[in-house]
Design a protein that fits this description.
This protein has two helices and four strands. It is an alpha+beta fold and 93 residues long. It has a four-stranded antiparallel β-sheet with strand order 2-3-1-4, covered by helices on one side. A hairpin with a 5-residue loop joins β2 and β3. α1 runs antiparallel to α2.
């Protein structure tokens, strides 16, 4: 019989790694700075130059691809939770 350990969450991601997170929200002049602050609360070493910004065709929405260097899955999960809880964020992938 195979052992099953509920304490271990399986992932296909190998850590440490650089991981791109796409964050989307309505266009706002403070959107990028708010996202940077949110990530840096969980990952103080986050390099804000590792962001690619793209506006929607109509200009109503903006997406940021933020590449974070994470060392473990719980760290990545914490960043996702912080981003999705932010009122300016529509969703994070």
């Amino acid at each position: 019989m195979a052992e099953h350990n509920d304490d271990i969450t399986e992932t296909l991601i190998e850590f440490p790694c650089d991981f791109p997170i796409k964050v989307m929200g309505e266009t706002h002049e403070d959107f990028a700075s708010e996202i940077i602050k949110t990530i840096q609360k969980k990952l103080p070493s986050f390099d804000a130059t590792k962001i690619e910004m793209r506006g929607s065709t109509g200009g109503k929405y903006i997406s940021l691809t933020c590449t974070v260097h994470v060392t473990a899955k719980p760290q990545l999960d914490d960043i996702y939770r912080a981003l999705t809880a932010h009122p300016m964020v529509k969703f994070a992938l």
